[in-house]
Amino acid sequence: MIELSGPSLIQIDRRDPTYLTLAAAHPRLAAKDPNTWGLGAATEAAIRLNWVDLDETSRDLLPILDALAAKFRERTDLVLCGMGGSSLAPEVIAQTYGKKVFILDSTDPDYLAHALTGSPADLLVIVSSKSGSTIETSSQRAFLEGYLTSAKLDPAAHMLFVTDPGSPLDLDVRAKGYTVINADPKVGGRFSALTAFGLTPATLMGVDASILLDQAGDLRAQLAQDPVTALDVSYLLLTQNEQFLGFTDHGSNFPGLSDWIEQLVAESTGKSGVGRLPIAAEDLEGAAIGGAFTISFTQLGADLTVEGELGEHFIFWEWLTALVGAALQIDPFNQPNVTEAKNATSALLTEWGGHLPVFTPEHSEESVEIFGDGNSVMNALQSFVTSVADGGYISIHAYLDRRDDVRLEELRKILSLKTGHPVTFGWGPRFLHSTGQFHKGGQQNGAFLQITGEATLDFEIPGSNFGFKTLVMAQALGDNRALGLRKFPLLRLHLQDRSAGITQILEAARSL
Fold it and tell me: How far apart are CA 505 and CA 512, in angstroms?
């Protein structure tokens, strides 16, 4: 059962028109009424509401998944290729239960290399994509098929696919003899934790998927009996801060849950110039900077503490997100601005003809090239942070290796403490499927710090005239172009040497 505590609970006014709007939306959501979010959202909502009762409908998958686990039981190195909801939910499941899986949600070649450290014979690759058209996942699939083939292995014995029935990917891989698990096509990616996209990797990594469904069922029964818990939290998310929500899973049993919620809430609500931007922080102090409304999943002294089981958290936050969307009068199931960065990436790859150009920085200092104002890293950062709008936020985008370059995450809290602004941190390109929608569709008060770096490796992508080193840079500069068109404050720092450059940036930030 979800339980709430914290000082913010005394701020709830159940006679407030906002609360009454939420109360009216709740039964309509439970009944899967596509008109809950207005006529403009009804068409999309009509094909996106099956997440509401997945605790029941996903049980049909359980015997299929058990058979799948038996079929691939000799494969010990699990790699999941997916973006957004296809990877974030499996990651929090793995971290919660202490299971081994490598989440391949990046096109950085140095990060990709971590998927290849074991014997190819032990490899099991899950490719998760609703349509198969996502450039990251399709490129990873092509590369890993080639990798297995070059090792004289049959890719069909080492790869399986999770996709929508009848999708281009579904038709293609079935024709080639691959194992395919179909997900419910009437569930959007970020609401898909309890579909085949979440439960397939969960089962293959050794987690009992039925437990997650049981937990979700308990929460849905709680909501049916008394919706006040969901209504209260939705009300607080809407009224305690007009933009910033500080989440931390520090000290809880659910590492990674804040990252999953960040994607769910930011991409669902950040449109039409409104929305709520979650700040996934390393601790409560970091979550509170900038006056954000703070939420934790264990007793830390946050404004609100939400405690429950993982399966309960999945459906609870999905439910809240849908309710908040109704109150904001937006469609929580679309992502109209995500395609901007995708199109800009494609345009650059075409312009470059598959070859990465040489870029000339405005200035350089030791290991860091500066594309923006400032003749030193410290001066560039100083100029950048002073350009942040009053009441605005900073967003750091690191197109690097989120395993070996993880030290850079320290920059989030450093800049928060130095500036007093909320700061988000996203590994590129995965944040493009998460907060990327909010950056362009939510409140227009962001300032964006891009950090790119020289890769020590590169891998060709079969069927393409470019490799991963070119692809990841095209994604960074494509988003740079999309952000630049909006005249947002924008700074790119490029690391000639990643380790030395990260040290240099952190030292400069601490000296601000």
Answer: 11
How distant, in Å, are the alpha carbons of 393, 489, 509 from that of 446? 5, 7, 19
Contact, 450 vs 476, CB < 8 A? yes
- pTM value? 0.96
State CA 47 to chain mean position distance: 22
Q: Within its chain, how far is the Cα of 296 from the centroid? A: 19
- Give CA–CA dist 70/88, Å, rounded: 25
The band of 339, judged by pLDDT with boundaries at 50, 70 and 90, is confident
- What number of residues does the chain have? 512
Q: Which residues of 339-353 are buried (b: 16+ CB within 10 A; e: fewer)?
A: ebbbebbeebbeebe
Report the alpha-carbon distance of residue 192 to residue 83 in Å, rounded: 12
Round to whole Å and give the CA distance between 206 and 94.
9
Backbone angles phi, psi at 396, to 5 degrees: -100, 130
Residue 340, pLDDT > 90, answer: no
CA distance 425 to 243: 16
**What single-letter amino acid sits at 4?**
L
Bond from prior residue into 422 cis (ω within 30 degrees of 0): no
Torsion of CA 350, 351, 356, 359, to 10 degrees: -150
Distance separating alpha carbons of residues 275 and 270, to the nearest angstrom: 4
Residue type, 251: G
Instruction: Give exposure, 81-117, as e/b (b: 16+ Cβ within 10 Å).
Output: bbbbbbbbbbbbbbbbbebebbbbbbbbbbbbbebbe
pLDDT digits (tens, 9 = 90+) for 111-143: 999 999 999 999 999 999 998 888 999 999 999
39 close to 264: Cβ distance less than 8 angstroms: no
The torsion of the CA quartet 252, 254, 255, 261, rounded to 10 degrees, works out to: -110
Rounded Cα–Cα distance for residues 181 and 183 (Å)? 7
- CB of 287 closer than 8 Å to CB of 246: yes
In DSSP terms, 180 is beta-bridged to: 161
510, 414 in Cβ contact below 8 A? Answer: yes
Residues 6+ positions from 126 with CB-CB distance below 8 Å: 78, 79, 80, 81, 82, 159, 160, 161, 162, 200, 201, 204
* pLDDT tier, 421 (very low <50, low <70, confident <90, very high otherwise): very high
What's phi and psi for 419, nearest 5 deg? -105, -25
